[in-house]
Design goal:
The chain is mostly helical. Helices cover about 80% and strands about 0% of the residues. It has nine helices and no strands. It has helices spanning about 5-40, 45, 50-60, 65-70, 70-80, 85-95, 105-125, 130-155, 160-185. Helix 1 (about 5-40) packs antiparallel against helix 9 (about 160-185), helix 7 (about 105-125) runs antiparallel to helix 8 (about 130-155) and helix 8 (about 130-155) packs antiparallel against helix 9. The two termini are about 20 Å apart.
Length: about 190
């Protein structure tokens, strides 16, 4: 039950192209649903406004106890962590990798182009070095995809989580095929 190396390269290239397209779709879906997530969750912080107002009234009575009024605010922010506040802080912290926003349009375009170029080169050229380079690209993208899956789980966006998981699976399968191609004995 051996597969033709040409078919394996074609399958790897197809997985890279499909993953690139799904990645682009996932970015578009995430941008389209981003504000909806922030709109859905403000109700819990609204419920926590009353304790915050009571704490502000207590600090107002004490006048010099501004430190106490500052203590309830983090608890209100902690309650808002399921809402809009954390969405912004998580976006800033989990989306920035080494200070770079991987969802910036030029980087998204570059990632898609790199994946498409890797797919084309894999399909046209079956040398081990080329396949090995494509495996490195696929593994790198899979790692970023898995980080995105974790981020989307924290955000609670099911559709984008599923898309990111499918993209990660596609990249991992492409890498697996590449490793299988490289490990095959050299043909005549």
């Amino acid at each position: 039950m051996t597969l033709d190396p040409g078919r394996m390269r074609a399958a790897m290239a197809t997985l890279l192209v499909a993953s690139a397209l799904l990645f682009g779709i996932g970015v578009l879906v995430e941008r389209a649903t981003g504000p909806a997530t922030a709109v859905e969750t403000p109700s819990p912080p609204g419920e926590s406004i009353a304790p915050h107002v009571e704490a502000s009234a207590e600090s107002g009575e004490a006048g010099g106890e501004a430190g106490e009024s500052h203590a309830p605010q983090p608890s209100a922010a902690a309650t808002g962590e399921t809402g809009e506040s954390v969405g912004h802080s998580e976006n800033g912290s989990s989306e920035a990798i080494l200070g770079i926003d991987p969802e910036a349009p030029p980087l998204v375009a570059l990632a898609i182009i790199l994946s498409l170029v890797a797919a084309f080169v894999v399909y046209r050229d079956g040398r081990r070095a080329v396949i090995g380079g494509a495996v490195v690209v696929a593994v790198g993208f899979a790692a970023l995809d898995l980080l995105e899956v974790r981020h989307q789980i924290q955000e609670g966006t099911a559709l984008v989580t599923v898309i990111a998981a499918v993209v990660a699976t596609g990249h991992l399968l492409a890498a697996w095929l590449g490793v299988a191609i490289v490990r095959r004995p050299a043909a005549v």
